[in-house]
Amino acid sequence: MILQQLSEYYDRRIEGGDTDLPEEGMSEQAIDAAVDLERFQPGGVPPVLLLGDRSGKKPKPLRMTVPAAIKRTSGVAANFLWDKSAYVLGVKRAGKTPDAGAVAAEKEFEAFRQLHTEALAGTEDRALLKLLEFLEDWTPERAVAAVEAGEIPIEAVDGNLIFRFGRGTVRDLHRFRAARAAWAARREAVAGAAGRCLVSGIVAPIAKLHPSIKGVRGAQTAGASLVSFNLSAFTSFGKEQGANAPISERVAFAYGAVLNKLLAPDGAHRVQIGDATTVFWTDAPNPADDTASRVLVNAVSPTYGLMDEDAGAEVDEAGEDGTAKKPKIDLKMSDEEAKRVRTALSALARGRTMGEAISADLHPDTRLWVLGLAPNAARLALRFWYEDRLGDAVDHVRQHWHDLRLDPGIDPGRPVSVYALLKALAPQGKLDNLPPKLGGDIMRAVLSGRPYPANMAALALMRIRADGEISALRVAMLKAWLLRRSGKEPLEREGDLVSLDPAETNTGYRLGRLFAVLENLQRAALPGLNATIRDRFYGAASATPGSIFPVLMRGSTHHAAKLRKDRGGLAHWYDTTIAEVIDGLPSNLPRHLGVEDQGRFAIGYFHQRQAMMTRAPAEVKAAEAGEPAAVGDDDA
User: Model-level pTM?
Assistant: First the structure.
């Protein structure tokens, strides 16, 4: 299914006029330099021209389409008409340090020479004959000497090189008609045995090795395989490599080419969620497909500051000087494009459809596909696969924002990124410390509207107990998790647990509220405390209230008595509030609260604190803010 959808997507992009995708048998590579065969003379050194942008500290090679790269599983194998300097010139660096010298690479150069001698035998093309002349004359020893003498720039060593010939507008040798014909003949000569493709159903040459997929964070730089058979235990009926799951070379090329394009770091279709590198695509026309993917990518994981120019959504990303840092998720959008995406997201949050908010080409029935990939040694692991109507996916994302809503705290009109949620759950704020599957599981829940993973709530509670930070994001996750577990329809749960609910009788919720009031009472009675009851008892109070709350209530008696001496009005307010909260509790407090009730405990605590910040007497607000009380009893 995945390979079929990717293959069909490649065809749609090509038919839609996408010129960035390579044609069959070609691939896009980063090229560092070109060998000028026009000015090469036997016995001499050909000029080697550096390509790309060399103005910055880190050179940016020129990306161009060249004959498809061969998959080097082991040993030495050469590419056609381009390759590393070890193959093209027979020279490579002696070490990894910048001052490491150059050494000869005889085996690689010989493989390159044999490949082209065999593939170009009998050619009468002047440019290809010049290439054969160069390969026959050149030696790796001369390459090393040329590098040491500065005749070949050291920057070209270990980079990818192409050949150039002639003085016309088309100088890249691999673009010449004769070269393209030679490449087509070469591919036909080495094609695998014919078989019926499991994806297309057509009898065609079967791919022995599938293309390398690049761009998945944590995977090998040279790329990793989505389909591979590297051990005999994975094979059957004596078949070898790709024959165990016959996919035609054409389909293998198509899915590899378009997936590499989707995974491009500066593309509109890619986002990193946890350990899963995730790509989106639709069956909409090309421009609308790009726009829809960019908006959806930001809908589930907005770029920092995209939805909040005051940097409120992920304020912990601010640097030491208070300025906003660029997040790791950088979609490289222009200011104008970011403005368009921000406007579209705001419109979606207000209930507009994709067609209304973005493009008329995006009908609710437009199909959407989402693929999450993670590294697994030399291969890729499939984290999740999702397919749906675009309209349904947008509705689910919008529902996710609403389920997170807290008043005050989380506004549904300002989408919270999945990245921010994961960061709030991660020890030390490092996503690498999270369970590998968590990001993908949350992502699937966001897009499908299904319940959130159980470990999301468990991790939120664990982090609250570990560092004592009861943040809006963590409480919002607990609230959303509980709402979806309730089994209620979205409209039925619309206002549940959004803000303080005095009528809520759940024991966990009431105990959370009571704990917040007792903590505030302690702050009012003993201003300037370095540690409150929250620092010492929150974990025990939320998990085993039957043993902790009697202790806390005895302590509150002393706090209230101290407060009553000089601020009787305020003490009365606390007495009334505590009585109102206790009124809904059972006479025998439970010895233990389960995960759900611990979540409600955190929500009740958060709601009560927010209410005391906004609706309580000024002295209560001051205590909540940790400030000394400055208002007399008359004001209470």
Answer: 0.75
